[in-house]
Amino acid sequence: MARDTNSLNRRDVLKASGAAGVAGLAGLAGCTQDGNGGGNGGGNGGGDGEDYPSLGNFPIEGDTATFGFNVPTSGPYSSEGEDELRAYKLAVKHLNNGGGWVDDFGDLSGDGVLGYEIDFVEGDTATDADTARESASRMVQRDNVIMFSGGSSSATAIAQQGLAQSQKVLFMCCLTHSNDTTGKDCVRYSFREMFNAYMTGQALAPVVTGEYGDDLSFYQLYADYSWGQTQQESMKQFFEEAGWSQVDSVATPLGESDYQSYLSEAANSGAEALFLNHYGLDGANSLQQAIEAGLDQNMEIVMPLYNRPMAQAAGGAIEGIFGTIAWDSQIDNEPSNSFTQFFGDEYNGRVPSGPAQLAYAQTLQYAAAAERAGTFYPPEVIRQLEDYEYDNIGMGQETMRKCDHQAQRDIPVVRGLPESEQGQGQFFELVNVTSRDDVGYACDEGPAAECELGEYGDE
Amino acid sequence: MSLFADLLGVFLNGLQAGAIYILVAMGLSIILGTLKFVNFAHGALYLIGAYAGLLIANEVRLSNGLLQQYGYETVGLDLGFLAALILVPVFVFVIGLLMERYLARAFYDRPDIDQILVTFGLAIIAQEAFRVLFGGQSINFARPGWARGPVMLPAIGNFPRWRLAVIAITAVLVLLVYLLVEYTDFGLIVRAGTRDPEMVELLGIKLTRPYIVMFAIGAALAGVAGVVGAPLENVNPSIGMETLVPAFLVVVIGGVGSIRGAVVGGVLVGMVYAILVGAPLASIPVIGGAISWSAWSQVGIYALAALILLLRPEGLFGSEEVS
Fold first, then answer.
1. What is the pTM for the complete model shown?
2. ipTM score of complex
3. Which of A157-161, B38-42, B151-155 has the lowest mean pLDDT?
4. Which among A126, A227, A441, B100 is most buried, taking Cβ atoms within 10 Å?
5. Best mutation site among A73, A125, A260, A289 for testing chain B: the one with the most B CBs within 10 Å?
């Protein structure tokens, strides 16, 4: 459905002639080079086996490279998933036809990747790790994807990256914020642009303690799975280091819709602040219900990780509530402004969310790395991504660190706007963009301390 | 805070958590008890009630789905919550009539498994239809203006005003249905038909009409539950299925066909949930770490159902003849 069929081109001719064989393709590609760079990949880019051995879904058969986009279109994180999907589709369109950031990424041509037209398949993780793994497995085994991406719920991302390592197919994490994604299950075949809970703690603690004082007691509710668990651990660590003290920390099931009983307990705990470590629809529900129950009259409420769809669902409840976000359209630099512009042009004026920016960026980062490598051969693409320095996705100067595949980047700290000031796509006041120099950790400390990445596959 | 205030708080939380289950389970139980029809589409009626209520009460901005793609950026009548509370039961009542006449009736004499399959299929179709039309995203159902924010209760402190309203609305509806079934000729015929349909027909009373009305009343109750319950959370296509399972548990606990059973079952389920979340058991240290009991609140509901089924297989208020 994503294939662009606007014009008859070299690939269509190849298809029509039935030249599906890789060797034939290589020969024809050589004959039909037309100076636009499109012909460079038919042989070497896809990998005809001359330069690199078969590995995972490499070499690609045919003249189309397929990406897999595995996001939740059902379950509590479905709003995030649907915005990710919009961005993925846009990325594929731009990779094939030019436009968007593709025109500014020096490594990309706008004529597919390595001469291959990009197609994609999509899957629904249902915000569930097992479903995500099954869906990703189908993409790898049946659809022969050369790369897959997705997220929303770290549990799904962690499940998918485990599959990626074993199948030797690259996984570009999208929305996953658990420390464990790059701090426990460290996988060579996975890269994460999103920051993690540890970094959120580092970015949030100075701002929040500066606002509310440095000796408050706090109570935590957290979603009971990988993300929520590491999220509340990091909040405890950094706020206690800043002088606050934890009264209690209570788990809630993922997908819970009624938090009233949990919130009553929090209100009765005597704590002066409440952290709601919930995300997506769960976050919108818990924050809204906390405000409905009047908790904000006696406690300071903090929502450590926000995004735009959940703020939209929570409405006026976000007023004055601090948190961090992956990216926001208010960040004023060239890549951010152009992303907001072309995403809106494509989708009827819609303002893109942080998860959408992650999805778009991660797809292009993979494609650019393949172009730099000159091949889809996974170990070479991985080496191109490792320790890569970039500043072209709207979050300033970044490094995709080699030791744990965790991007070192700035973190936006925001505060929710009152309902009366919320405009279309505008839900936060940008309080601070915390520099990457003030967050993060060395390769032998924090979540990276346990990291030993898996094999490249060509050892 | 005193123990009394703690208990009072847990009681109120349990009551409000159970209120929606009571409304859904009451209709389910009536249909199952009188018509012996296993209606897995009952959650879909809740879903229809929620969306219908949302669209009658509010004006909704769509960011997804087929309607939005066809240019309907905003939908909804914006008539307010009371209009929804009146119109939705009527609307879902009619859906119930149609469902009984054109679907359920053909399956009365067929095995339970056939009924389950066809109604479950219907529920999935309804869920996916809403997803296609309105998108998968959650839509905020604004609480009515008069019931926003907290109210200060003695001993307990702040409590959401809307949740008190939910308890009150549920109590009124339960009373109305109870009076209808226990103290009217219509109720008498339905109850007699449940016990011995042949004898009732021999007396010259045709059961078809009371049955179809009873089915529609059950459906309307699910619709009302949707309107009342939806402002507690955000509306999305999955909420029908999420409501169905606890509602069935309430029916199992309370006993099939019993209004009293639905009420007691609903309150019990709500209480178990509130106690497990709020009890001082939370984070009891055990060997090798601490267990957070709050995350086990769902398990507690199933354990309660299993325990009651062991002790009393027909449920607390169910009679063996009926079940």
1. 0.83
2. 0.81
3. B151-155
4. A227
5. A260
